[in-house]
Amino acid sequence: MDKGEEGLFTPSGRFEFPIHGFSGFRLEDKFDDQNTRESLLRRRVIHLEDLVKELMVRLKIMEKDNEITKANTEVLKKHYDDLENKVCACEKKREVIKLK
Length: 100
Hints:
single chain, mainly alpha, two-stranded antiparallel sheet
């Protein structure tokens, strides 16, 4: 995922996109070099938060794609119904011509 598409959760729980490279309230730059239990847990939490954020962005994209697909399906159905009506009208004209 591109860095520009990444969003952050605010303390109030809202999902926002970062402004001017602000990285939110994450502690990823405050790790000690030793792999202490606490630092490993922090890294894991940050990794999981990143995964959740990425999934939220993907979900929003999928919702938009779903709306577009639904609208396109409705348009295609309308066009299909119009064509079906035209074909029925042509067949009726053909039957009338055959009867004469």
